[in-house]
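Table S5 (text form). Sequence records supplied for joint modeling of the three-component complex.
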Amino acid sequence: MEFTVQQVAHLLKGEVQGEANGKIYKVGKIQEGEAGDITFLSNLKYEPYLYTTQATAVIVNRSFVPKKEVATALILVDDAYTAFSTLLDEYYKMLNFQKIGIEHPSFQSQTAVLGKDLYIGAFSYIGNQSEIGDNVKIYPNVYIGDKVSIGSNTILYSGVKIYSNTQIGKFCTIHAGAVIGSAGFGFAPQADGTFKAVPQLGNVIIEDRVDIGANTVIDCATMGSTVIEEGVKLDNLIQVAHNVRIGKNTVIAAQTGISGSTQIGENCMIAGQVGIAGHLSIANRTSIAAQSGVMKNIENEGVSIQGSPAWEIKSSFKSFAIYKQLPELKRKVEDLERKLKELEKDHSNK
Amino acid sequence: MEFTVQQVAHLLKGEVQGEANGKIYKVGKIQEGEAGDITFLSNLKYEPYLYTTQATAVIVNRSFVPKKEVATALILVDDAYTAFSTLLDEYYKMLNFQKIGIEHPSFQSQTAVLGKDLYIGAFSYIGNQSEIGDNVKIYPNVYIGDKVSIGSNTILYSGVKIYSNTQIGKFCTIHAGAVIGSAGFGFAPQADGTFKAVPQLGNVIIEDRVDIGANTVIDCATMGSTVIEEGVKLDNLIQVAHNVRIGKNTVIAAQTGISGSTQIGENCMIAGQVGIAGHLSIANRTSIAAQSGVMKNIENEGVSIQGSPAWEIKSSFKSFAIYKQLPELKRKVEDLERKLKELEKDHSNK
Amino acid sequence: MEFTVQQVAHLLKGEVQGEANGKIYKVGKIQEGEAGDITFLSNLKYEPYLYTTQATAVIVNRSFVPKKEVATALILVDDAYTAFSTLLDEYYKMLNFQKIGIEHPSFQSQTAVLGKDLYIGAFSYIGNQSEIGDNVKIYPNVYIGDKVSIGSNTILYSGVKIYSNTQIGKFCTIHAGAVIGSAGFGFAPQADGTFKAVPQLGNVIIEDRVDIGANTVIDCATMGSTVIEEGVKLDNLIQVAHNVRIGKNTVIAAQTGISGSTQIGENCMIAGQVGIAGHLSIANRTSIAAQSGVMKNIENEGVSIQGSPAWEIKSSFKSFAIYKQLPELKRKVEDLERKLKELEKDHSNK
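The corresponding structure-token record, covering 1050 residues in total, follows.
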């Protein structure tokens, strides 16, 4: 970004105290502020940094009264924390939605239907009969197959690949290298030991406000649809197999894999490197700890599980605590065996 | 697709009963059939759906006699299940091999040798002295380096990257974003604590009828070749390190990783998120359960293993069952200690 | 490559014995040597192969005296092993840095600053105000956003995506499909159960001599920088989350994931499929075994850990050894219970 302090104050409906013409280039923390930074002071624990920071401007509460002289410009607002959040959001939108227009060369099928205010990066490809909504941002080297629909205000970063027949909602963000709609992994064993691909003829449906991380893969359904419901957030390098459904507002961390036909509920929290077997049903609000391996249905809502195979998390940690002392437990058992033998001998001698 | 019922019947060598001009757009299940769908009835458990389905056509056995009136068109064939499979296969081939011709702009080295009936998507790249067989489909944004050979009827989906010197067989399918031939991960420690890359000068050989999933990576050999034998099926996001060999018809699920120089036998079934250490040899027909970590050779054929580290699966599940009861086992041991102490005390008092 | 034996000898400051005009196309092992290969003999265990190899030339120590007639050309040098290493390095450099010039079509912003001796592949993209150092190799389909800087002698293989504001040092190698600078995975829960993206406004800094594997992902910082220090080597399909710092010369194997804000020390060795939780600090020279799950700080340098959750590796293996015998341990405890009961009964009868 490149703004004056005055321009930022205007955006935040605040007033400037000090140098209003200073140039702002980026946001930072008050304790690390450099010339050109804008930062904020809300928690007074950080007040001492206000008097030493090199930042060009600091957003503060209107009610705040400095105890010493301040070298930086102040922007006075009703609530510094909220104003800073607003600034971040505006800056983010600006960064991501500023691009507009069609770069050349790029490829749009003559039968594609294109909305308004698009950015279409160089070397991107839009196939036959695909429909692109208003204000969509398609970065360079993106591939969009045939009969794909993409809702308005969705961003596809560089190198995203969307197979034919995929449907993507509005306000989605799909990060670089993600693959949506590749063939599900289904092979029928043949009499001679070889495998024959089961044709994968379904598609992927991604609803509104879904975020998908870099290099994540979502396979199409064998028949019907693999569905990612509204508000789901997927991190990087995740595997979503054919015919999976992920419920509303579920959040999944990096490198997790979900096998074919599994249904995941709403508002689940799934940590990184989790594996979930196929044809399972996971209840709403399930929490799954990192590296867990889920091998059966989770039927009750709001349960936390851990382990590989995964089970109730508190029991899992109790067993693990004893696992760490297994050598001691074994020694105790051997001790008992020895003592019991002596006692028996002793006893039979009496 | 877009066919009439009559056209499909012709393809399947069947006869139409009912409306032969209905339009078919996709395949579906009988219980979910919508207008424009074609489906089938083989298992009579599903017969009730025949009388209620909205599908435009249903494939049935010639011997089948409906018990009620049927609104949908019927296609009568000798074996409905086989005919439906044939339809899926034909549809799949049509979907994947229908594209033909060279889109522009795309890049083909003047020294590349190109077969017949190719599809070469826009923004794809074919390097020097590479040879592309007949009927190969190269989707947009594919990169093929120098001296690569690709056998006939192979499909490379969008964004596949093939490093120089790679050899790929016939009838292979490589999904979007897969990388074949990247440098093996070999670094020699130096006296000053830094690492020096060991030059990776070998290549990758992929034999016929191999399927490779989206964003999977196969590294080239340090010297010689990393080899994926005929009929191997690899899912998405798999790591295959330098100098690995994977035997015929082995199937590997998503996110599994195989370390350098390991040799995997034929007809193995390896589940998802498995890790296999380097320089190992895994016998034919080994089954490895999900999330297992294989740390030593598997010498006997047909063994199933599980766990991290992995061992014989039945033993592994027996130990895990007791692991879940460890707190109880510990209590029992403490109980025994207490009782034994009392008994000893009691005993010595006598 | 394509050299005569004489040319290779000249490069290695050696002398030819035998046919100096033989053509060399590739390097190989002495036991697998084919016509057109060059190989070496250092360990005399392999001497018998010298008399049977089909290789065109073999590099040997000047002091070496063959016991039989040799059909292949010999190149006499002071130290055959070192000379062969030198040859590999030179060959590798040649392979990777031979490309030069700009292929078309490709996209360079008019505000981009380009160094000398570049290779810029077709369909690659260089955004606004980005700076590319001398001798950088940008393969086809690479995306470089705005305000990116790339140091001299760095190689970006096909399909690498670099988000805006990223800084990359000199002599780095980034393999195909890697993504640098994607948004960190940060979402603030809202009252209605949905999640709002936390704007990710920082960047990624990659220092000199870093290697990054194929399809690996490094997220940008929320504020500030995700930092990969000098000499770090990352394998394929690794996840590095926002605000992580990886210390000098640390080596990380494939499919490992590092959660947000974790700091990893220098000279660590981290095996494959490891998961490291967020906000942790890992001491210098820590070794982490494959598939481990690190859930707390590692404070002492040079420690080896294993397991999920991870702990000291020797203790971990001791517990695992007993875990494998848990059914036996359980039987022993039940045995003890039975015997003790008998003894008690017996005792009370007396």
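Note: Chain B touches chain C through 59 residues (CB under 8 Å).
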